[in-house]
Amino acid sequence: MTHLLSVDDLGGASGIEEVLRLTDSFVEVSARSIPKVPALRGKTIAWLFYEDSTRTRLSFETAAKRLSADTMNFSVGSSSVNKGESLRDTARTIEAMGVDAIVVRHGSAGAPHRVASWVDASVINAGDGWHEHPTQALLDCYTIRQQLGSLEGRHIAIVGDIKHSRVARSNVLAFSALGAEVTLVAPPTLLPPSVDTWPVKISNDLDAVLPTVDVVYLLRMQRERMTESLLPTLREYTAFWGLTVARAALLRPDALVMHPGPMNRGVEIAAEVADLPRSLIIDQVRNGVAVRMAVLYLLLGSGAELGTTAEERVRA
Ligand code: ASP
Fold first, then answer.
1. Which one of 70, 80, 135, 264 has the fewest CB atoms closer than 10 angstroms to its CB?
2. Would you say the pTM of this structure is higher than 0.85?
3. What are the pLDDT digits (tens) for 11-20?
């Protein structure tokens, strides 16, 4: 693997499992009193973020530091992008300074793929428009596996604004590759036109689905991507699709609640529900660091080959 642009780049269940197994090693590293290994000493990683981010950016940055890599920060607001510099020129400029990997977030689907075609460095997709967010899917798989042992045969409902969600696209690919059954629950206006081709079931009755799930995964209403009015009001959305306290009572006692963040408390998830012990939202963030360490290590570590040898090297 040279780049991580889509969950599909991991080559199905075995590639995803490799990342998850390696993540176990980095969870162990992160728990040490000095959570740092020299694995990527001498490597330089640049962040190319054209869209806002809290979790993804800080977690990639922490992951790189724990692996002893050098990092190069780029922020669109204070760069020559404001003078009209193109994505291609910006990417090639950054590469000319000597980077081994570029982590790209962009509002347009396919932007990281374009960057990968222009530079020799490894490119990691940190979210491209409505398209994909593969490291989010990996950290979500890791979090579910940590709680339930495996995703095989589990029922996961993804609820909300599927249409504008790159998280939904990557998670459907990863969850189904690992053998989970996925049900999308959304109003018809928030489902993408291509959804018939996805390996999922579809429902618009959240109350009927909730008692059957192992995991309910809420999505944010992505208002920044909505170009038309797809919902009467947010209050109505919450009434039909929000995980309110009353609705959370329909869940089985062992069912888990997830959300990629940032949350709109009181819209897709009630504040009280987000803070329940069954809510894994903080575990997702915590695991994000170790998962991103695993991804950076697989792309840039010595030999960059997948497999148990990589795990052994990290443990050594
Ligand atoms: N943080 C996730 C993303 O960048 C989810 C969201 O923004 O709602 O796609």
1. 80
2. yes
3. 999 999 999 9
